[in-house]
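Protocol step 4 of 5: obtain the predicted structure for the target chain.
Materials: sequence only (see below). No template structures provided, no constraints applied. The aim of this step is simply to have a reference model before the mutagenesis design in step 5. Sequence pasted as it appears in the construct record:
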Amino acid sequence: MSRKKQPTNIFLILLFLLWILASQSCLIPIESLSYRYTETSISPRIEAEVVFRVEVPFRNEKQILYLDVLDEVTGLALNPTRYELNQDDDTHYSLHLSVAKGTFLKYRYLRGGLPPLVEHNALGQQVRYRSHYVDGPAEIKDIVAGWQDMAYQGPTGRLRGQIFDEQTNSPLPNMMIVAGGFQTVSLEDGVFEIENLPVGAHSLSVFSKNGDHLPFQQGALIAEESLTPAIIRLKPLNLVNIQFNLETPDNFATQMPIRMVGNIISLGNTFEDLRGGVSVVANKAPVMQKSGQDGKYTLMLRLPTGLDLRYKYTLGDGFWNAELDSSGRFRLRQLIVPDHDTIVNDTITSWQAPGTETITFTATTKEPVPSEDVISIQFNPFGWMEPIPMVRVEENRWTYTLYSPLNLVEKTSYRYCYNDRCETESGAPLAEEIRSFFPSSVPQTFEDTISDLAKTTQ
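Step 4 output (structure tokens):
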């Protein structure tokens, strides 16, 4: 993509984390953390110009509007790339981006301020994301319905449709539908409906959670108190074998599994807003297999040709212990899956941010834990996040080493969980004790004993 991005400011990043603690309903950073795609080049890159044109519900000659291109693998609110739009008149803005053909964009709009405010749909709900598949030059027309401090007051209509497989004519359930700041999924008969869409032209996007059908998009004109119908046929995609070979940094050895997480269901994406602003769950992602050589791993996947795969390697999830670039920023890889079997060779630059050292947690339970069960660790830097499985070293002893992103957090709480359950049905923590740590420039080790965790879950 081209165009000036907002600079990274570590002070504002830390301020953003503190702000999240006070406002879990609006997980939007004050400044972009400035991630960049690491493109896996299989075929020549072809770019297309995408023009965003958006209408907003206010009149202000000096109001700044941003577009955030979102990173669903790290977390929608945790690692966007931010662009400032051009103001065309009091209520219309535009932005020209050069984007690689085959990219599937997930984005949303923000109004300038400290912090910027994320757009809301006509029901007053925060927009999760809009989407667009870049198959060539395009002009996208969007309508922002409102903001946190400015509810939508205008007329609405609704969109109702049904989704079929283009080849078999069978209805397609569980397809994602995105329009006008709303998201829904198709039912068993392929039917979907979105109500309360503002009157006007919207971009309608439909895609598969595992990428096995070609994304569909078209304009949808919504009239007041009217129903707009849509019959949609999705083209199924052929599957190819992609072998991912991974080489870790020199002298790196670990008992922890290396996982591959990504933007599809089979790589841990839940397509939901989980705790702490993430969407990816560690225990739903595949584990890389050691290839027989020190520091080398491999994984074979069957993937749809043409899929815009966003992925990264991690010792945790998309946020904790995920791979970093040489400057300590999150690395997000992009592969447009080719139409033939392919080997992809990737190398980890770093697991660890400059200026910080590892923290090792060892948990011992009073009683042995059954072999099929797992002790997890859960971190709270600005709100509780999703638990991460620990490594069993004995029948009642577990360990986990934290590498990153310790440069982005300060005092962080943690607690232990059983089979990824961290709370009882009543909301009480399974482990009564909540501990904490501060990142440091020297390695740290915490030896903890948990006496109540297993008993609570029986």
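Step 4 remarks: Helices lie at 10-22, 453-457. The two ends are 52 Å apart (CA to CA).
Proceed to step 5.
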